[in-house]
Amino acid sequence: MTSTTLNGHDYSTDGSADRDMVGDDGYGYQTWLIPMFQDALTDFAAKLTNANSAAAAAGSALPVIKYGWDNGTTDADPGAGKLRANNATLSSATTLYLSTSDMNSVDVSSIIGVYDDSTSTVKGYLAIGHRTDPTKWVIYSVGGSVVTATGYRKVTVAYVAGPGGFSAADPVAVGFVRNGDKGDTGATGATGTNGVDGTNKVCEGGTAGGTENALTCTASPAAILARGVAISLQTGSLANTGAATLNANSLGAVTIQKNGSALVAGDLPASTRVLLVYDGTYWQLSGGGGFTAATASDAATGTSTTLAVTPSALSGWTNALTELTPGNVDQANDFLPIWDTSASAMRKVRASALATVASTTTWNPSDKYSAMTLSNGNLTASINLSQGSVRATNSIAAGKYYWEVVCINVGGAIIGIMLAAGNLGSYPGNDAYGYAYEAYVGKKVNGNTEVAYGSVCVNGDVVGIAVDAINGKIWFRVNGVWQGGGDPTAGTSAAYTGIAGSFFPAFGSGSGSASPSVTARFSPGSWSSPAPTGFTYIA
After folding, report:
1. Is the pTM of this model over 0.85?
2. Domains of the chain (ranges plus CATH)?
3. Handedness of CA 466, 483, 416, 96 (dihedral sign)
4. What does the pLDDT look like over 281-336, one tens digit per residue?
């Protein structure tokens, strides 16, 4: 197109018209694409009599396809010469189902097949207009691949504009405008600053200063306010009397919490060593109240939670020291060495004294479909007779992570991961932005393509999810058994590979006639089975 007139408005690509698709800044299409579609559809309804001339009016490089509208929403052949969406509310639709033949029984599969040819993320734009009523129309962007099915094609879309309003058997026309291919990769940006040295994430705070409700310390290595940083310190001579704060290394007073709530009197006992872990907002008290030195009789009977020893007494440990991760700590029998500066001695601490490492991750009340309800500290998610999803508060960074989900009511439950771009009005895996396990039918799903995969879950079953964000893989297991012969430790037989992006744990319903409910287990102490070797929890 150099220039054209639609519905009395002039459009151009050479700067000759007011509504120029290039524009001075190169982004004129962002301003004029939707008005051009509207004007084209108005002209189409009023003046044009054949599909090819309609396509030219809409600026399309392909012929317009004539269909009859079908009111169905299921993933199935809409019937010869028909078109349907996966949601009766067209502004919420994410997939279109197009017959491979138009209303005149002409094969149009080759035309539909071009819809995903662009290498850009957004492949182009589909305009659907009523052929006799210009007030009924809708525009979608096309993303992902066109999926082939018997007698029809599935096209992943995202709503852009338009009132819709089509009824069963309405005569409609579908036009497509292709996006250009993705441009060359730009120059490499400046190198960012180095991250925090992982060896400095546990700091020794000595004996706390300040007051019982306003603690201070100078930790070594120097503490920073970054999620996951921990400080081990000895409280002062007085127990706290209520809410308390910690000012570490003069970084400012930060509230101390216990299990996500403000402290109450006695949570920080006098002269007691405690472990505080920063969750990105607060210092979280790990364990029930710290530990003190064991008595001689305690040591003799083996009932102590700590054992005071000199460094020389640790000689027998030297060759046995290995890294402990949340997935392989034996709470009852494992011990951790901690140096007590106040006593100039190494203390051997039973893992149970430090309690289970707690994840701060929950389902996100600000990132869910409206029909999804949360309870149990935002760890239990339920949805009643509707499709929809919820994402977790924390995304999966580069690394290997594991968590579990308990099926309270398995009907329609779909469990997996979603990008922020995923449609919360549907279920994980319904589009290209999610990968999931359909617990209620034993299938895996991505891009709205289901594949038979594993066990059909019943109420009470536990679904485990392992994600290797380094190598782009995901596995699912049911009641401790990895599905599809997968082995996350070895990195083999993953449910999906080639995963890329910042994904969030996600849960959704794949059925509008069921009411699934699940409880997430993000903290290691709540897991039914240990994490695969090398995998950890999402902090």
Report:
1. no
2. 3-178 (no CATH), 198-354 (no CATH), 363-526 (2.60.120.920)
3. positive
4. 999 987 544 444 444 333 333 333 444 444 444 444 443 444 444 444 444 455 56
